[in-house]
Amino acid sequence: MLKHVKRTLWGVVTTLVMIALILVQSSCGGEAESEETKPTIKEGKVYYSLTYPYYTDEFMVVLLPDVMTMEFKNNVYKNTVSKGGLFTTTLISDCNNKELVLMLDFGSKKIYTKLDSVLIKDYLKNYPIPDLLSIPTSDSLGGLHCKKYQAVYEKLEDGYDCEIYTTDEIDIDGSNWCNPFSELPGVMLEYEVSQYGLVTRMKADSVSKVSVADDAFVVPGDFKEVSLEQMLFQMEEIFKQVIE
Fold first, then answer.
1. Which domain of life does this protein belong to (predicted)?
2. Residue 225 has pLDDT above 80, yes or no
3. Contact of 147 with 163, CB cutoff 8 Å
4. Which residues contact 80 (CB under 8 A, 6 or more apart)?
5. pLDDT tens-digit profile of 93-117?
6. 206: which residues sit within 8 A by CB, 6+ positions away?
């Protein structure tokens, strides 16, 4: 039982970070825009619900995050995932300069690390890339028109096949540079994350056309910069504190 709890708690910590780092709601360039697909929202927030379709431990699932928020403006976006105000991971992606900032806020630990396109490319080598099939149907999520895709993995151990819905009505250009779905056009409004055996489904509940402050994309002054290796080490230390 203790081993199960330890493994699950570690999954909680790593999933929070991986949600922010690997499968960022994003869009990519590469397709000519028509009048029908021209982005219409240049600044605002997207609110996502997080669920765990294949996780059956009702006791431990309450420890997992259930909400994610994305703020976007001027081709920069910020994803925030937290649980109970005790643990927060934040990702800031500058799509103009292909730079990422990953922040971790846990008790007295407030740290961040920076990653460029070279580091991201190396990091993503550890994750399988699915085949993406366009499905001739559409839907609406968060009040926005969506296109449907099917993500198909070559091997079962690589991940579960899943449906993905994207929209062209949010203006973020080239932001899929930092995740395994770089071939997809549009911002993902529904998709799945698989990490350490835990599958998380992300689904947009609403999209708000609101002003986003410029300093929303600035790292607070009380955060300390560390390397990616140090960030991962600190996560492991946090995990040890949780289980002791």
1. Bacteria
2. yes
3. no
4. 20, 68, 69, 70, 71, 88, 89, 90
5. 998 999 999 999 988 899 999 999 8
6. 46, 47, 142, 143
CATH number of 2-243: 2.50.20.10
Instruction: Tell which residue, 3, 69, 31, has the closest CA to residue 184.
Output: 31
User: Comparing 132 with 235, which gets the higher pLDDT?
Assistant: 132
pLDDT classification of 28: cutoffs 50, 70, 90: very low
Q: CB 233: neighbour CB atoms within 10 A?
A: 12
pLDDT tens-digit series, residues 156-211:
666 678 899 988 899 988 767 777 777 788 888 998 877 666 788 999 999 999 99
Rounded to whole angstroms, how far apart are CA atoms 68 and 88? Answer: 10
217 to 19, 56, 74: CA distances (angstroms): 18, 36, 11
Q: Where are the domains of the chain?
A: 2-243
Rounded Cα distance, 65 and 230, in Å: 24
